[in-house]
Write a structure and sequence with these properties.
Preprotein translocase SecY subunit, about 70% helix, mainly alpha, 6 strands
């Protein structure tokens, strides 16, 4: 049966949107913030020879840096001030969440509520600065050692260039982190996810042009092009289906007496999403794979031989890359689900409000049952994530299709779009409820007169 909220959402129209002034302000703020982000991806890093860097990037863009460049919206291939994008912050979030699960002090801090969450976020910001500085320094050293037919990539190498590169790239990452938080608070949707989404979508038109150009020149046959476009549509449909899939546990509330009246017990559902972790596992997995390779690929020819071997083995389309990527997605799917949903806390909350699962004893048995169900559906969700992200990359790696048609990019784009649309609908529903409450108050005031 369709819920009242879904019925109300289906009846939303343009007139309701026109009256939602707060929502329009939030949408304009989100759009303005993303425009600022896109402008920053075209501001080049000081002291770089653009022509020489373009030649250097062409020789390494087919590996992990190609995926990193996709997430950064082309900022890496232009070596812009946002070249590191938001990835150091994501890596810091991974480390902090792992430490929170293993460190009793951080775990106790997490349970303190809002104040503890703010403190952990502050630690994450400090760790982001450290990781961004290390990656930026590695990039600076790698750029100084890069030379090709167009000349040296760095016009004036030395400590001053390294210092300015580190300050600029770290400042760009911290600005994007702040911008993402502002979008989350004052805009619509999750700011960090929207920044990554904007980077992916910005390169999509160019990828389509490249795909049609490959078909026109005969590099790929029209049949293969049509097959991959159909596969992309099928992947999008699968993402929508699995992201909306839920396992609903029936929750019963006992009869209760208030004064002389006996109220019938209510029944509701505890929804458990098939993919409770969302797009976090692919982003975390990509971030961890990018972390050791980002700076190494620029200096692979001058570094030790084993470093070049590792970089080549972890390149996009390589068997080791796909295996490690799939395993990381499976791990983070279970890990992040455990972080987001705590069966013990859920069972305690149900007991606190008098709810229970039919046939299951409240308390410890309820927590065990929720954990059992959650583990089973997470297995399916994790396999779905790994298949969606790895299988298209496996096919595109051997057919030369642009990376933008990979499962990871489609998963992020579709999931973020669905979450953002859901938030817009929530704002519109809240706006309609506020209008109904105001009308009821006005009628009540007239009635008393």
């Amino acid at each position: 049966m369709v819920s009242a909220a879904e019925q109300l959402a289906s009846n939303l129209n343009l007139s309701a949107f026109a009256k939602a002034e707060d929502l329009k302000k939030r949408l304009w703020f989100t759009l303005g913030a993303l425009v600022i982000y896109r402008l920053g991806t075209f501001i080049p890093l000081p002291g770089i020879n653009p022509a020489a860097f373009a030649e250097t990037f062409k020789s390494v863009s087919g590996g992990m840096l190609g995926m990193f460049n996709m997430f950064s919206g082309g900022a890496l291939e232009r070596m812009a001030i946002f070249a590191l994008n938001i990835m150091p912050y994501i890596s810091a979030s991974i480390i902090m969440q792992l430490m929170t699960s293993m460190n009793p002090k951080l775990e106790a801090l997490k349970k303190e509520g809002e104040s503890g969450r703010k403190q952990i976020n502050q630690y994450t910001r400090y760790l982001t600065v450290v990781l961004a500085a290390l990656q930026a320094y590695g990039i600076a050293v790698g750029l100084e050692g890069s030379r090709n037919a167009a000349g040296s990539v760095v016009t004036d190498p030395g400590m001053f260039f390294r210092a300015t590169t580190v300050i600029t790239l770290v400042g760009g990452t911290m600005f994007l982190m702040w911008l993402g938080e502002q979008i989350t608070q004052r805009g619509v949707g999750n700011g960090i996810s929207l920044i990554i989404f904007a980077g992916i979508v910005a390169g999509l038109p160019g990828a389509l042009v490249q795909l049609f150009e490959l078909s026109r020149t005969g590099s790929i046959s029209p049949a293969i092009m049509i097959f991959f476009l159909a596969m992309a549509l099928a992947v999008i449909a699968a993402i929508v289906f699995f992201e909306r899939a839920q396992r609903r546990l029936l929750v019963q509330y006992p009869k209760r007496q208030v004064g002389n009246k006996m109220f019938q017990g209510d029944a509701s559902h505890l929804p458990l999403k098939l993919n409770s972790s969302g797009v976090i596992p692919p982003i975390f997995a990509s971030s961890l794979l990018l972390l050791p390779v980002t700076a190494a690929q620029f200096s692979a020819n001058q570094g030790p031989e084993w470093l070049g071997t590792v970089v080549a083995a972890l390149g996009t389309g390589q068997p080791l890359h796909m295996l490690v990527y799939a395993l990381l997605i499976l791990f983070f799917a279970f890990f992040y689900t455990a972080v987001v949903i705590n069966p013990k806390d859920t069972a305690d909350n149900l007991r606190k409000f008098g709810g229970f699962l039919p046939g299951i004893r409240p308390g410890e048995k309820t927590a065990e049952y929720i954990d059992y169900v959650l583990t089973r559906i997470t297995v399916v969700g994790a396999i779905y994530l790994a298949a969606v992200c790895v299988l298209p990359e496996f096919l595109t790696a051997y057919a030369g299709i642009p990376l933008y048609f990979g499962g990871t990019s489609l998963l992020i784009a579709v999931s973020v779009t669905m979450d953002t649309v859901a938030q817009v609908q929530s704002h519109l529903i809240a706006q309609q409820y506020e209008g109904l409450i105001k009308k009821a108050k006005l009628r009540g005031t007239k009635g008393t007169r």
